[in-house]
Predict the 3D structure of the following.
Amino acid sequence: MISTHILDTSRGLPAANVKVVLEKKTANNWNEVGSGVTNTDGRHAFEIPYEAGDYRLTFMIEDYFKNQESFFLNTPVVFRVSDTKRKYHVPLLLNPYGLSTYRGS
């Protein structure tokens, strides 16, 4: 239901081996519902139940950039799942000094 893909635009390659953590908001708390590491194509899919709600996907990019200067630290993206009949893909375009995300298909 929820997946991600990280592309390193400074290298023109997928960002492999980046830890990603998915949390769901319940009341006033964020509870982890899944985590993993991007594969060699920079992708990871979370095997979770199809549930509406507010989610936070944190990209653990500090380790990815540990051997070079960069501006951003671990980066959360907060989004809402409303239609449980569709998939939600949250890509991240990343470089040491910029990032962008969008709702993919």
Q: What stands out?
A: The radius of gyration is 14 Å.
